[in-house]
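Technical note accompanying the year-one report. For the benefit of new consortium partners, we illustrate the data format agreed upon in the data management plan: each record pairs a sequence with a structure-token string. No post-processing was applied to the example shown here.
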Amino acid sequence: MSFSVLKRSFSTTVGKNAIKNVVVIGGGLMGSGIAQVTAQAGQNVTLVEVNGDILKKAESNIGVSLGRVAKKLFKDKPASEAEKFVNDTKSRIKGTTDVKSAVTDADLVVEAIIENIDIKHKLFKTLDETAPAKTLFASNTSSLSIGEIASVTNRKDRFGGLHFFNPVPMMRLLEVIRIPETSDETYKSFMEWGKAIGKTCVTCKDTPGFIVNRLLVPYMAEAVRLYERGDASFEDIDIAMKLGAGYPMGPFELQDYTGLDLGVHIMDGWEKKFPNDPLFKTSETMKKLVKEGKFGRKSGEGFYKYTK
């Protein structure tokens, strides 16, 4: 993240329907990252989690991440400026376990919880009954249908997808997803808000995987099939894609980084919806690794082994 991005975030024009109060539901890697960049942009954020322990961990992770950002932004400035940046940003983030009270004055709710349609439906039903009419709803889902998530609400015109990328404070892209019912006003608000928090926004219809994952997940799955056929080792495939295509990570390194369990979950969901499309067939190798608890970096082993 550059200083220019942060500076642009604060200088964005505030319009009539500007988003100022944001609620982020889910304090995992994505949710805490979304809360962080929103607070860095000068907006008030309420971070919602299911219990106090998880909330405390999320707040701690945000503090650590802010420290890294401050170190880069203020490397040639007095330590007091970096400290002020961290404290000011943290002061805009309020944690709670009470989702109903959190949304009473929200301009925008961003959901970043587990990729389970039933759990998301239950959450959005509650939010729809509780949040005021002005509140816009968005899901950070990377694989589920935005329209299907929105189907349980009575505000489909104020619903869309806001798909961030990990790690949120560093990755500048934001995919803004429109369903047919999303109003022009809602779409405009999403785009303006994305720019206000320093992101480069692209638009996509509600298609499986949106833009990035629709291309990336089948690419990684094909890399596994190449390995399964014995055509090349996974190490050589990674080297080839880094040196031949200029990618910062090879497909196996990337799958270990994002989590093999997530990859299997996404492919399983797509395979159920599109059973006749070979592009979405889940790899048996990945299923085996996940069954063995080898999820990648987070578990210490995936295709590669990692030392803590």
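Partners are asked to follow this layout when depositing records. The longest helix spans residues 52-73.
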